[in-house]
Design goal:
This protein has 141 residues and is of the alpha+beta class. The protein contains three helices and six strands.
Length: 141
């Protein structure tokens, strides 16, 4: 019946929305995904907080996550970060004791490894040396 078709369609849309919400929350809340994009190895991470941004009419959003590493990064990792920052030509930067990474792609900008050239996206993270907390934001623009 037409009513059942409408009910099934609504259930389908809710499932689709649930899948999209899950993807947005957990896509980058993972050390392997972060390593794939940044080129730097991170230890296992726990998601501490997630703030979902409302999508604009055009689909733009900027979600924010707070992640905690199970252990602090090693001194070798900080030396590696300093060396790539000092060499220039990287999305990594450092100010005082805070390391940051930021990249945008799509609309003619190349996508990082593992991300689609068809989609536009943004990804940034920051953390202070000696801290286990990572502030990460990602979205579409």
């Amino acid at each position: 019946s037409p009513l059942m078709l409408i009910v099934y369609f609504i259930i389908f849309l809710l499932a689709l929305q649930g899948y999209d919400d899950y993807q947005r929350k957990y896509k980058f809340a993972d050390n392997e995904a972060i390593e794939r994009i940044t080129g730097v190895a991170f230890l296992e991470l726990d998601l501490i907080d997630y703030k979902k941004d409302n999508k604009s009419f055009l689909g733009d959003y900027n979600d924010r996550l707070i992640l905690e590493m199970e252990e602090e990064l090693s001194e070798l990792t900080y030396q590696y970060l300093d060396s790539i920052i000092n060499s220039g030509n990287t999305e990594w930067s450092k100010r005082d004791n805070e390391y940051s990474y930021s990249i945008m792609w799509g609309n003619g900008l190349p996508a990082p490894k593992g991300e689609s050239e068809e989609n536009d996206g943004m990804f940034s993270l920051s953390f202070k040396k000696g801290s286990k907390i990572i502030n990460l934001s990602h979205g579409s623009w």
